[in-house]
């Protein structure tokens, strides 16, 4: 069962996304800040990171930059990232490409959009690593 790490500062969003992904057959881990992300990734070894962009203190793109910077030093696993945010589609698309995210979802995303994006990114990852079904 693939593990999805959801990072968002809004508890309602965390609960809603968790329900959608759990109903899709995924194991879900949540975290409410960009701070400490590297430790959570090392602890849970998620297959995908669903990362909010606009969070207080440390934005999602800032947290992703820190995660990349610490990857070699602390052995953090490479994790595909999907940004989700209230930014416009064009802003979020540009940010995702700039930061190396595998995709993006504009809030509020439909349940089907969320599941389709997660399935696509996980399939791409499995194909790239030769671990598909």
Verbal overview:
The chain is of the alpha/beta class and 133 residues long. It has a single domain, classed as Response regulator (Rossmann fold), CATH 3.40.50.2300. Helix content is 50%, strand content 18%. It is built from 5 helices and 5 strands; from the N terminus they run E-H-E-H-E-H-E-H-E-H. Strands 2-1-3-4-5 form a 5-stranded parallel β-sheet, with helices on both faces. The longest helix has 19 residues, at 111-129. The chain is globular, with a radius of gyration of 14 Å. The model has no long low-confidence stretch (mean pLDDT 84).
Given the C-alpha coordinates, what overall shape results? globular
Structural class: alpha/beta
* Strands, total number: 5
Strand-residue proportion: 15-25%
Query: How many domains would you count in the coordinates?
Result: 1
| CATH superfamily label | Response regulator
């Amino acid at each position: 069962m693939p593990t999805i790490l959801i990072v968002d500062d809004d508890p309602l969003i965390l609960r809603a996304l968790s329900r959608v992904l759990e109903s899709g057959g995924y194991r879900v881990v949540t975290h409410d800040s960009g701070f400490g992300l590297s430790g959570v990734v090392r602890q849970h070894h998620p297959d995908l990171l669903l990362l909010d962009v606009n969070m207080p203190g440390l934005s999602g793109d800032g947290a992703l930059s820190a995660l990349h910077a610490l990857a070699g030093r602390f052995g953090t696993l490479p994790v595909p990232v999907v940004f989700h945010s209230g930014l416009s589609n064009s802003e979020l698309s540009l940010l995702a490409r700039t930061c190396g995210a595998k995709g993006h979802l504009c809030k509020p995303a439909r349940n089907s959009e969320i599941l389709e994006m997660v399935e696509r990114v996980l399939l791409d990852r499995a194909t790239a690593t030769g671990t598909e079904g």
